[in-house]
Each structure stands twice: as C-alpha cells, then as structure tokens.
Amino acid sequence: MLDYTFQFGTVWREWPLLVDGLLLTVKLSIFSMVFGMIVATAGAFGSVYGPRPLKAAIRVYVEFIRNTPFLVQVFVVYLGLPSLGIRLQADHAAILAMTINVGAYGTEIIRAGIESISKGQIEAAKVLGLRPFLIFRLVIFKQALIAIYPALTSQFILLMLGTSIVSAIAVEELTATANTIQSRTFRTFEVYFVVTLIYIALSLVFRTAFHMIYARWIRVR
Amino acid sequence: MIRDFSTGDLVLLLLAARWTIVLSLIAFAGGSVMGLLIALARTSRMKALRHAASGYIELFQDTPLLMQLFIVFFGANIIGLQISAWTAAAVGLTLYGSAFLGEIWRGCIEAVPAGQSEAARSLGLRQWQTNLLVVLPQALRLAIPPTIGFLVQLIKNTSLASIIGFTELTRTGQLINNATYQPLTVFIIVSLIYFALCWPLSLASRRLEIRLARRG
To answer: How many angstroms away from the CA of B31 is the closest CA of chain A?
Structure first.
C-alpha cells in the first residue's frame, strides 16, 4: 500500500516564505481587480456609446483576449514587449497582463449590464429632467451593478486563482513559493497540498468580502 | 545558437496544435462522462449525494487549475504510480472539466420545470425513466451553448499542461522561442492558433444561445 510518510512539518517551517507569497498573490489580485475594472468600465462605455470604429476596436480586443490562453498573454507581455522597447519587471508585467485579461471579460459583463436597463427607464429619467450624468449614476449604474455583481465577482475569483499562472514568469507569488519550497525540501506533495488549502481559504475570504460589500453598499434596501 | 524564425517553425507550431486538440478532446470526453454523474448526484434526492457532489465542485472551483495539475502529477508518485506529464494533464483536466460541467449541467437540469418530472412520475414512469426520457433531453437543449462555451475554456486551459512539461502548443512556442529568441513573433502566432481554435466555438455558442432565447 502506501509506504510514504507525510511530513508536513518541513512545509510549515517555511511559513515566512508562504506568507510572503500569499501577500503578493493578494496584492496582484487586488491591483488587477482595480485596474481591470477601470479598463472594463471604459471598454463597456465605448462599446455601448462610442463611435463605430471604437466599438469595432473594443470588439477585437475583447474577442482576442477571451479566445486565447492567459498564459500566452503573459508571455506576450513579459517576453514579447521588450522587443518593442517596453521592458517591465516581472511583477508589473503580471499586473499588466492580468489587467488586460480581466478588462476584456469585465467589458463584456458591464456592457451586458448597461444593455439590460430598459430604454423606457432612461427616457422616463430624461422626461423628468435628469441630466445625463445623474441618469447614468442613479438609473443605469446602480441597477446594472446589481445585475452583474455575481458575474463580476466570480470573474474576480477566477482572476485571483489565475494569479498562480504568473509563477511561470518568476513572480514570487504563492505558487512560485510552493515551487521554491518543494525544490528545497523535496516534500512535493505536502507543499502543494498545503498551498492548495491556502488557496481555498483565500477564495473563501474573497467570497465573504464580496458578499459583505454587496450587503453593505450595493443591495437596495 | 540563435536561428531565425522560419516557415519550418510555423509548421512545428501547427503540428503541436494537434496535441492541444487531442488533450482538449480527451479532457472534454472524460469530463463529460464524469460531469454527467456529478450533475445527477448534485440534483439527486439523496442529501448525502448532493452534498458530496457540491463539495467536489467547490473544491475545483476554489483552487487554481495549476495546483490541481501539480497535485495529480506529484500525488500519483506517492501512491506509487509514475505517470507522465501527458497522463497527469489528461487526468487533471478531466477532473477539472467534470466539476465545471457538473455545475453547468446541474443548472440546466434544474431549469427543466418540475411539472415535467411530476407529470412523468404520475404517468407511471420510474425515476430513471423520468430522468432519461423526460428531464435530460430537455436539459440537453439548454446545455449546448454553455457547454460549448466551457469547451473554449478547456482548450485555453490545456496551455497549463506546458508548465508540468507536456509539449503541446504553448510549450512548443517556448521551445521555439528559446532557439530563435523572437518572443513577440512566436507568441503572437501561438495566440492566433489558439484564437483560430476557440473563436468559431465562441461564435457558435453565442448564436445557439440567442436562438434558444428567441424560441423561449
């Protein structure tokens, strides 16, 4: 049967490394969520209200990103951009690639949200004399946000889990830390098992945070 | 030695795409069979079965696919199986696919109105007959667009097999880049090949979804 002795102690002894990796994973996730939302909001706006060429350009961006692997996008940004004279640190390249990636998915989600608001409501708001900015803030944005919140937050969870992929370009986040520890201790299975548990905990924390944000600021009472 | 990127490299990349396709198909087939069982367990009347299935789904939804591949690859060693990167990728992606397809199909099964299975039961059909003849055929119609959508995810995610050392499209790109050092050219071409595989499927999925919505 199983003639393997599990040694989790060797893994736990490396906890300072694990904490560093965890913090970088969280940092990468939050930065790209924020930057990604900015790109996505701009993208959604452009694709709903923009002129035709802009709409077409955004369409190409969204389709191209959504139909190619994130890992290859990371390689294009980190390895490819230097040949155009744009040299980025691995961490920055990772955040840029993640922002571009989640920006495309987010554009689609937010666009769908804006388009889900019926024209009648916007016309009614105009008739009531609301200015365009107020119409957007009070009529469109709030309702759209409620409609897309679940899709948006699950995209964010996918993004957080996706940060593990940037370990491929030597960003010392959680997965890369696991690789370092396993090459040092040879307790391969234990390391990946523990790190998997950390990811589960992290998913749980993010889900809870998103839920609290929803209950506190977004839900209509 | 550094050489130039040539048509020969392009051919190598196109040939490597075969392995991406084969890996996707295996994971999709395996994932479908297991996913159907998961979806049935998830919608079963037995509480324990439902909980087990939802635990399985959450486990895969809350961990990175890369970790899942590592665990399969290195975990197999512990139980005394020396498996290749190819087997580990196929098994890992199958398990991953089964969890996501299970969750997608659960939604489709639950979207079939309860009146349908109640009617079938009151007509004297057994539970398995009700499932097989009444519920599943209707769920299948709903399931086609999101399933094709997931196939796109699966094709893209086979690129992670390159990290555990399976030489598919992405890894071939890396190897060619190491020899030619023309990363921008190489990885743009790699992206375009993935795009050519995925985009038609994405379009088909969206078309079918719109058609389904229109028919109501």
So the answer is: 20
What is the value of ipTM here, to two decimals? 0.93
Contact B170 A69 (CB under 8 A): yes
Does residue B196 form part of some domain? no
Query: Domain count of chain B?
Result: 1
CATH of the domain at B123: 1.10.3720.10
Per-residue tokens: B8: 């020969």
DSSP letter at B82 equals -
Asked if residue A219 lies in contact with residue A146, where contact means CB atoms within 8 angstroms, the answer is yes
What is the residue type of A196?
Answer: T
- Using left for φ > 0, alpha for ψ between -120 and 50, and beta otherwise, residue B124 falls in left
Tell me, yes or no, whether B70 lies in a domain. yes
**Residue B162: CB partners within 8 Å, gap ≥ 6?**
A71, B168, B169, B170, B171, B174
Write down all domains in chain A, each with its CATH number in brackets. 13-218 (1.10.3720.10)
Q: Is B34 among the domain residues? A: yes
Per-residue pLDDT reduced to its tens digit, A107-164: 999 999 999 888 899 899 999 999 988 888 888 888 888 999 999 999 999 999 999 9
Residues 57-116 on A with a CB inside 8 Å of B are 63-64, 66-73, 75-76, 79-84
| Residues A63-113: tens digit of each pLDDT | 999 999 999 999 999 999 999 999 999 999 999 999 999 999 999 999 999
Residue B145 lies in a domain: yes
Interchain contact, A71 vs B194, CB within 8 Å:
no
CB contact under 8 A, A72 and B159: yes
Rounded-to-integer distance, Cα B178 and Cα B207, Å: 40
Q: Which domain holds residue B151?
A: 19-167
Higher pLDDT, B186 or A220: B186
Q: What's the confidence (pLDDT) of residue A118?
A: 87
The answer to whether residues A7 and A193 touch, using CB atoms and an 8 Å cutoff, is: no
Provide the mean pLDDT of chain B.
Answer: 94
Contacting residues of B for A64, CB less than 8 Å apart: 191, 195
